[in-house]
Automatic annotation (TrEMBL), chain A:
Keywords: Cell shape, Cell wall biogenesis/degradation, Glutamine amidotransferase, Hydrolase, Ligase, Peptidoglycan synthesis. GO terms for biological process: cell wall organization; cobalamin biosynthetic process; peptidoglycan biosynthetic process; regulation of cell shape. CDD domains: GATase1_CobQ (cd01750). This is Lipid II isoglutaminyl synthase (glutamine-hydrolyzing) subunit GatD. Substrate binds at residue 136. It comes from Candidatus Dojkabacteria bacterium. Pathway: Cell wall biogenesis; peptidoglycan biosynthesis. Belongs to the CobB/CobQ family. GatD subfamily. Pfam families: GATase_3 (PF07685). InterPro entries: Class_I_gatase-like, CobQ_GATase1, GATase_3, Lipid_II_synth_GatD. The active site is at residues 98, 214. It catalyses: L-glutamine + H2O = L-glutamate + NH4(+); beta-D-GlcNAc-(1->4)-Mur2Ac(oyl-L-Ala-gamma-D-Glu-L-Lys-D-Ala-D-Ala)-di-trans,octa-cis-undecaprenyl diphosphate + L-glutamine + ATP + H2O = beta-D-GlcNAc-(1->4)-Mur2Ac(oyl-L-Ala-D-isoglutaminyl-L-Lys-D-Ala-D-Ala)-di-trans,octa-cis-undecaprenyl diphosphate + L-glutamate + ADP + phosphate + H(+).
UniProtKB/TrEMBL annotation, chain B:
Gene3D superfamilies: Mur-like, catalytic domain. PROSITE patterns: FOLYLPOLYGLU_SYNT_1 (PS01011). Keywords: ATP-binding, Cell shape, Cell wall biogenesis/degradation, Ligase, Metal-binding, Nucleotide-binding, Peptidoglycan synthesis. This is Lipid II isoglutaminyl synthase (glutamine-hydrolyzing) subunit MurT. The active site is at residue 329. HAMAP family: Lipid_II_synth_MurT (MF_02214).
Length: 268, 421
């Protein structure tokens, strides 16, 4: 079904700074799931202070500590803004976790009131009420995938699977959408999500997926991993193909373990 | 105040006894809990009773450093120390109360306490320690501690509150050696002068001008996984598995030497120190050796794995729980370098614990296709079932890497008591 020409280039944004909470699991999952199917997967990095980069098919940015985020904020504005905007216009896939998700929004205000402007690509704003651990959104997180997305998720995964996403959240920032042009990635079943009020989690906008979910996100949610891989392949090769089915029993067991633990019923 | 203190001691001791006899309360922190609940105003007064005090903090190595120091000091002195699970204010208050006699006297020359990082500012508000040792600062249970930057601030705050203390810092860890000490006379740095340092994955920007420090060199890993090293024209040997313990030994050497203990006595005590609770200790089970290693963060996981890489026909048990004391967030296993396992001579990997599914998944993504075929990768959720399996197996030795509550559970099943071997 695939031949040598099928290849995805994965671009890791700021792997040195934006890499807390096990987000490497997302990189590994995309890589392995491509390689198991004979799709070549090349990883390149975009680091601080660089202003020359090659285009990729999937872009990824993870979460970082506050101080590292300031450095990255500045660098993004200075060197990467135009490039990333162009790539989004080119319909490239983006996966942004936690700090990465916040940085693509309009601005972020930390607990000391320092305001940092983001790339402004996503219409959202984030405020951290305090440095207190009690004010963090912290714990296991279960969401129901946005119904507008579920059909496409099933299509790329190859069959109907879970309607849920499972993971763990740990963030001080509370994120709100500033207009209606974006939709959430999911509805919160267990946990907080974007903020402690609205019971929505993450964002889906053009080809950008933003989420507060760690755990890592993709290993325990293979349907979402294949959704990203499938969309990237479709954009690049335009063929209407199905991804080879993998044996995901270990993946689904860990997915179901969280649903069971949190008392969420399921039928898949 | 003194009479009030003595009365409180009597009261707390009696109440603790009653609660324990009636089985309504247990644990070593019980006296501390009672004080926190009924007499919180006495906490400063109790803490001030502490004698010559050495506080040990940092992500990894607190317990082993405390064990080394205790062993060095106890041959000629009475040493008060806390247990590894009791490293919050409550645990230290408990320890002081339990050891205070009915006349209100605490008959000890030294106190060696390991302190959880976030509790450092609270404790140094009341105890003016003679020494503070900072072992290292890694990412650790981000759900409990928040970011490492935050932890670093706590330790800085504690050191600012202790202007007269001797501060002993890891010079190889950029996060630790950048801690500011106002009085330069009051600080000592330790480190390792060996290429093994590169294995540690210290974070932060390496400072170009390292502070002058005391360095261990010429590290050699021994057959029992202990390490020998040279320092100050002497050869030292530690028999606790793990070359990372050379840091803990160096911190203990500097600490004890500055008190005036002879270097020969220090050397002897280090050599005789047996592994603390879950730090490479060996438990015998039906003629099989169980090597027990506590893991709680990626840095520790990686170093413990690296230690096992040359063993033959390894039987490995990875036990991951997600209780509060383990960290409810298990994301950290994805930051740990389980890919190292591909170069091991592995027979079996058992994945266990309340999050055995996550550990199994991590192994699936770590192992290459060839190893996935050849290694027995087995999930056994319950720890007691793992122990049954080990009991009846033909294998002679097992290496277990466990999170904190998994280790307590294992010990309780094997010995009937979670704290003592």
């Amino acid at each position: 079904m695939y031949n040598d020409k099928h290849k995805l280039k994965f671009v890791h944004l700021y792997p040195e700074e934006m890499n807390i909470y096990g987000d490497m699991g997302n990189v590994l999952t995309l890589k392995k799931r491509c390689e198991w199917r004979g799709i070549e997967f090349e990883i390149t990095n975009i680091n601080l202070n660089s202003n020359k980069f090659e285009q990729g098919d999937i872009y990824f940015m993870g979460g970082g500590q506050d101080n590292d985020m300031y450095k990255v904020f500045e660098d993004l504005q200075k060197y990467k803004n135009t490039f990333l905007n162009d790539e989004i216009a080119n319909n490239k896939q983006f996966l942004l976790i936690c700090g990465g998700f916040q940085l693509f929004g309009k601005y972020f205000i930390d607990f000391q009131g320092r305001q940092i402007s983001g790339l402004g690509i996503l219409p959202l704003e984030t405020k951290a009420p305090s440095d207190n651990l009690h004010d963090r959104c912290l714990g296991n997180l279960v969401t129901e995938i946005n119904p507008n997305l579920i059909e496409e998720v099933n299509k790329y995964y190859g069959k109907k699977s879970s309607n849920y996403l499972v993971g763990f959240e740990n963030h001080g920032g509370q994120t709100y959408f500033t207009d209606d042009s974006v939709s959430p990635l999911g509805k919160v079943i267990i946990g907080s999500g974007n903020n402690s009020k609205e019971m929505i989690e993450g964002v889906f906008y053009k080809n950008i997926i933003g989420s507060y979910m760690h755990g890592s996100l993709l290993p325990k949610n293979p349907h979402l991993a294949d959704f990203i891989i499938g969309r990237a392949l479709f954009r690049k090769y335009g063929e209407s193909f199905q991804l080879t089915t993998l044996n995901d029993s270990v993946e689904w067991n860990s997915h179901k373990a969280i649903l069971n633990k949190m008392g969420v019923t399921y039928n898949f | 105040m003194e009479i009030l203190f003595v009365l409180t001691i009597w009261f707390v001791k009696s109440l603790t006894l009653i609660l324990r006899i009636t089985r309504r309360g247990r644990g070593t922190a019980l006296p501390g809990l009672i004080i926190e609940k009924y007499f919180p105003k006495l906490i400063p007064y109790i803490l001030q009773k502490s004698p010559y005090t050495i506080l040990i903090t940092g992500t990894n190595g607190k317990t082993t450093t405390r064990t080394f120091l205790n062993n060095i000091l106890q041959s000629n002195h009475k040493v008060l120390q806390n247990r590894s699970g009791s490293n919050l204010i409550r645990g230290i208050v408990s320890e002081i109360i339990s050891q205070t006699n009915i006349y209100g006297r605490l008959d000890y020359q030294f106190a060696v306490f390991e302190v959880e990082e976030a509790s450092m500012p609270k404790i140094t508000k009341y105890i003016k320690p003679e020494q503070i040792i900072v072992t290292n600062l890694f990412r650790d249970q981000l759900d409990a501690y928040g970011e490492v930057d935050r932890t670093q601030r706590f330790i800085q705050e504690a050191i600012d509150l202790s202007p007269n203390s001797l501060i002993i810092l890891n010079n190889d860890d950029p996060r630790v050696n950048s801690i500011k000490v106002v009085n330069a006379k009051n600080v000592l740095y330790f480190g390792i002068n060996d290429e093994l340092v590169n294995k540690f994955g210290y974070e932060g920007i390496k400072s170009k001008n390292k502070n002058d420090g005391e360095y261990a060199s010429n590290l050699r890993i021994l057959e029992n996984l202990g390490t020998s090293f040279d320092y100050d024209n002497q050869q030292f040997q530690i028999n606790i598995p793990g070359y990372f313990n050379v840091y803990n030994a160096m911190a203990s050497i500097l600490s004890a030497f500055s008190i005036g203990i002879q270097i020969e006595d220090i050397n002897h005590a280090l050599k005789a120190t047996k592994p603390a609770f879950g730090r490479g200790e060996i438990i015998n089970l039906n003629g099989k050796k169980l090597h027990i290693f506590l893991v709680k963060n990626p840095a520790g996981f990686n170093l413990n794995l690296d230690l096992l890489k040359n063993l033959n026909n390894l039987n490995l048990c990875l036990v991951l729980n997600d209780n509060t004391a383990d960290g409810k967030d298990v994301s950290w296993i994805w930051d740990s370098n389980l890919e190292l396992l591909n170069d091991f001579d592995l027979n079996t990997i058992f994945c266990c614990g309340s999050r055995s599914e996550d550990m199994l998944l991590r192994c699936k993504y770590a192992l290459n296709d060839e190893n996935m075929e050849s290694i027995n990768l087995i999930e056994i959720k319950e720890i007691h079932k793992l122990i049954e399996k080990i009991k009846v197996s033909e294998e002679k030795s097992y290496y277990l890497l466990l999170t904190y509550t998994a280790m307590l559970e294992l010990r309780k099943i094997i010995t009937g008591n979670s704290l003592n071997v």
